User: Fold these one by one.
Assistant:
Number 1:
Amino acid sequence: GAVVSQHPSRVICKSGTSVKIECRSLDFQATTMFWYRQFPKKSLMLMATSNEGSKATYEQGVEKDKFLINHASLTLSTLTVTSAHPEDSSFYICSAELPGTAKSFTEAFFGQGTRLTVV
Amino acid sequence: SQQGEEDPQALSIQEGENATMNCSYKTSINNLQWYRQNSGRGLVHLILIRSNEREKHSGRLRVTLDTSKKSSSLLITASRAADTASYFCATGYSSASKIIFGSGTRLSIRP
C-alpha cells in the first residue's frame, strides 16, 4: 500500500513555543490530506482537511490560528501548533488519500503519528 | 466531530475465541472502514465495505453492514495475542472525502 511518513514521531516543547509536524506521501501525490488529534484511550477527532494549493478546511471548534496547516506541495502537508500550551499535548496523526479516489473512496493511508508533549 | 459509537468499549477474551465488535452511525454513508491501532501507533486499514454491500471477508476478519439499522460489526475469528489493539470503525461519504471515526473498542487477548 501507499506510504505516508510523519515527522517527528515525538516532540517535547516548552509552553509558548511553536511546533511543526510534517506529513509526507512518499510514493504518491496527495491532493488531500487530513489531520487528526487523539487523546489517550480516545478516538481520532478530525481537525482539518488539507488541500494542496488552497486553504485548509477546519472542523467546527478547531482554532485556525492555533493549528496552522500548509499544503504547499502534492507530497507535503504541515501542521504547526502555535504558542503551544500543555492542553495541546496530544497524539496528532495525518492521513492522505490516493488521487482520483475521492468519490469512490478506497482507504486512507496514515502516518505513524506524532506525540506532542508541551511542558 | 464523531459519527460512530462502538460497542463494547473494551473487550477481553481468551486466545482462540472469536471477538465481535459493533459500530453504529448516524447519517447515510458511502462506505464504512475498520482500522486497527496498536498502542501509541498509527492506524492500519483492515477492511472497507461499501454501502451496497452486506458482508465482506478478509482472512480471519468478517465485516457486516446493515444500512437500515446504520450499524456494522467486525468479527475476528480464532483470536491471537497479536490481535490485542484498539479497533475503530470509520465512515466515509460521497459528498466529501473525509472519514469520521467511531469511539473505538479496546480488545485484549488473554494467552
Number 2:
Amino acid sequence: EPEVTQTPSHQVTQMGQEVILRCVPISNHLYFYWYRQILGQKVEFLVSFYNNEISEKSEIFDDQFSVERPDGSNFTLKIRSTKLEDSAMYFCASYGTSGSKAYEQYFGPGTRLTVT
Amino acid sequence: DQQVKQNSPSLSVQEGRISILNCDYTNSMFDYFLWYKKYPAEGPTFLISISSIKDKNEDGRFTVFLNKSAKHLSLHIVPSQPGDSAVYFCAASEGTSYGKLTFGQGTILTVHP
C-alpha cells in the first residue's frame, strides 16, 4: 500500500538555525499539507499546497516558514530561524486525485523537531 | 480555538463491548467529518468519514453518527478489540477550504482483554 514518508524521524537543532523537513507524498496525490502537534496539544494545520502554490495557511505559518515541491516528488517545510516554541512533531499529509475532494488525507509518520 | 472538541480525554472498555467516542463542533461551515486513529510514534491513520448530508456511515466494526442540529458526532466500535487501543481524533473540514482539517484534542481508548 502506498504511504507518505518523512525524513528525518528526529531533528535536533539550536535556536536560530534553519531546518528543512522532508516528505515524499503518495505519488498521484495532488494536495499536500503540513500539520504540527506540540506535545500534549492538538494537531494543528499549518499550510496546504496545491498546483505548485500555497492554497491556504494558518496564523502559525508566518514568514519564518516556507514550503516547496522542488522536483515533483518531495515536499519540504523550511523553518528559517527556529525558536524554542517550534519544538513539535511535524506531520506531512497528502490527498487527492483529480476530481476528488481533499478531505481524507494520508499522514506520514512525522518528524520530531527539538529546538534547544 | 475550540471549534472541534473531544471532551473525554480517555475511555476504557472491555474487549467485545462497544466503544463510543464523542466529538462536538461549533463551526456551522464544517461539512465533512473524519475520524483518525493514532498509535505512538506514528502519524494519524484515516479510519472513517461522513459527509454533512448523511447521518450515519458504517464500515465494518466502525460506525460514525452525525447529529447536525446538535453539532455532535460519535464513533462506535463494535466489538472492541485490544488492537483498537490508540488515540482517536475527530477532525472536520469546510467545503470552501482546500481540505484544511481542524482536529479535536483526541481520546485515548484502552480496550482490555
